[in-house]
Here is the input.
Amino acid sequence: MQGGVTGILIQGSNGEAQHLSHSERFRNIVFARQTLDDAGFKDVVLLAGTGAQSARETKELCVQAKEAGAGWVLVLTPSTWAAAMGVENILKFHREVADNSPIPCMIYNFPTVTAGIDLDSDILSALATHPNIVGTKLSCGNVGKIQRLSSAFDSKSEFATFAGKSDVFLHTLLSGGAGTIGALVNVAPKIHTKVYKLFLEYQETKDASVLKEAFDLQAKISAADWAVSKIGGVGGVKAIVAKEFGYGGGTVRNPLKEANLGVIVQSDLGGKWWSAVEEVINIEKSL
Here is the structure.
């Protein structure tokens, strides 16, 4: 939190939500909320992933998330029966979940983990009119989709559009989006905060040099974001945080694999990826 982030997502894709039992999810949320409160961050947003493969289970997880202390939920589209998930069923699923969730819902669009199901801006615009659906996390990284949604709905008051990748963080802000909820923020929160502050300064001053500085940092963020995805995905993020910041570990649950950074960085391609990550980490530690 001292890195400047304004909220925490627990049990997203990098949190291995699909590998956790209901009781584990509940305990994690309780622990996260209590830790934030004890550290003086009682006003910090806690968003919990509640995606499951049926509306019934998803609704149960939403209720449990509220009971555990979450303020919002992030709902992934079911994908076991991908062929059945046409527009009508997608809308029906998310509306039923939102109707029954005791806390506001955000739609999580991540085609990589939903068998290629990709919610387009028309579907998301239709869902945005639901009173209990308040935003979306777009891990598809589609800047055009971000632009269309941000233009149609005010991210501050109507429907918050977040990038799901740091790769397009500044682009999202310039499009009117709310920000980013991405894996790289776990590694380098301060550099993201720096870009956000530069964006706000540019909005106020219209100073082109400020925008250039923001884009220069964004270029480094984009390179590191891509590299992290290649260095082992979920296991890579955990291993990097443990190595560079001294907490956590690289343990992941089967079938995911732990990332052996020592081996990866010795290869030509792995070394190139690590250089991009290391550059951002060095900036992070200087801020």
